[in-house]
Amino acid sequence: MLQLIMNDILGTPAILIGLFALVGLLLQRKSSADVVSGTLKTVMGFVIIGAGAAVLIGSLDIFGKMFDHAFNVQGVIPNNEAIVAAAQSEFGTSTALIMVFGMITNILLARITPFKYIFLTGHHTLFMACLLAVTLSVGGLEGAPLIIVGSILLGLCMVLFPALLQPYVRQITGSDDFAVGHFGSIGYFVSANVGKWFGNKEKTTEEIKVPKSLGFLRDTSVAVSLTMTLFFLVVALFAGQEFVETTLSNGSNFLVFSFIQAITFAAGVYIILAGVRMLIAEIVPAFQGIADKLVPNTKPALDVPIVFPFAPNAVIIGFLFSFLAGLLAMFLLPVLELSVIVPGLVPHFFTGAAAGVFGNVTGGRRGAMMGAFANGLIISFIPAILLVLMGDIGFSGTTFGDSDFGVVGILILSIMKLLVFA
Amino acid sequence: MKIMVVCGNGLGSSFIMELNVKKALKELGKTAEVDHTDLTSAKSVQADVFIGAADIMGQLDDGSRTIVNLENMMSIPEIKSKLEPHLA
């Protein structure tokens, strides 16, 4: 009986997360219909994430083989959804436990420290929980210590990163009502400081005419499809028709095959996002409700597009300059004997756009351009360094995208290495 | 009555807006079904009102939908004033 509870019920992440949702729904005194449907949807969300991972990893494997044959280096596509989905089979239970206890730690810290932030970007909480589960495990922790250390670190991330950005968020939004809760904070912080040093905030981006035509890239599915198609086709051309058709595509035309694989990757991301949406739909309101009761007067820390409407031009400029830095880094990385980080439109759009907004508020046009460029370099080099340290953990072909995941991961792995060899 | 909240990823900001729209409806004493999704999915779902940040809603606006643009997605008064004309 105990075996059944410990291994099969609590050891199945989907059921574990479902139980958390159930408790959350009961605490909010929801109607029985809401409790049943909310719990079922949460479990289903987790199962959908796994299904999306299977779709995506197939095409990622093919991309890796083509890239390797073409250039003789590893090409890596940083994608949070992909790596988190891939890691769930092995680290699902510790991820789920760290996520929930991390949220509880966040509420405690908001209660007893001056950092009064409640981090409401649920998918980033999940991704950071996963990063902590993986890196702490690689560093040698397991069982209860892994969950305790992971939860404390996650809770700290959930208040410290919003606090780091708050002085700039106040300038951007002209209010102190809410914070930014998004784990690309280090990139935005650097961008704001680059803007402060090198820019002039009087010359704001919002006075220039920027074509709105790039707006369609805000749509994640479109952006992923487009980037992956471009990269797949270029890599297929370099790998050569013969290689692709004999070893990978079973004889079907190499360009058609590559195009379908690119769209398959995007479809995988779409499925995973749908799963994540269902998974966090019940957990975030419960978290917010509990936090409001226990710690009044906190600021909600929200997903980064919250700052986009304050400077729409800086959004487009920031994306372009971040992506430019990503393209440049692609050629620099192999020179330094690091893996090639394929710049994705999605990470560069979301974090580059935000870096543009932060750079603009401290340094105007020049700040937006240079700050976003700095962000683009950060989200290229940090994942590459993280990969070296993750070493043989084995999710080849993908890694975490945004800056804070990489920085936290690198810090944890470096410190744990020192402790082991000290 | 169905209200669909939209953002680029369908994860973070649209979810927070959904919670705010629900608060606004409560204050107005109205009821409606509220959900959130990403841009791609939004183009293929049915809803009476689509609401989202001003900088992306242009892509949904093909004349066949009722669109509400928000400047500040955290402002309950703004949501209330812009949503009210569309509520039955």
Describe the structure.
- The complex is a heterodimer of chains A (422) and B (88).
- With 422 residues, chain A is mostly helical.
- Chain A has helices at 2-9, 13-27, 32-71, 80-112, 122-138, 143-173, 185-198, 220-239, 241-248, 254-294, 312-335, 345-390, 403-421, and strands at residues 75-78, 117-119, 179-180, 299-302, 340-341, 398-399.
- In chain A, the strands form two sheets. Chain A has a three-stranded parallel β-sheet. Chain A has a three-stranded parallel β-sheet with strand order 2-4-3.
- The two termini of chain A are 43 Å apart.
- Chain B has a single domain (2-86), classed as Response regulator (Rossmann fold, 3-Layer(aba) Sandwich).
- Chain B is an alpha/beta fold and 88 residues long.
- Chain B is globular, with a radius of gyration of 11 Å.
- Chain B starts with a strand and ends in a 5-residue tail after the last helix.
- The chains are: A mainly alpha (422), B alpha/beta (88).
- Chain A binds chain B through residues 120-124, 173, 177-178, 182, 212, 215-216, 218-222, 270, 273, 276-277, 280-281, 284-285, 288, 300, 302-306, 308-309, 312, 315, 349-350, and chain B through 7-13, 15-16, 19, 36-40, 53-56, 58-59, 70-74.
- Chain B: Residues 1-88 form the PTS EIIB type-2 domain.
- Chain B: One of its GO terms (biological process) is phosphoenolpyruvate-dependent sugar phosphotransferase system.
- Chain B: GO terms for molecular function: protein-N(PI)-phosphohistidine-sugar phosphotransferase activity.
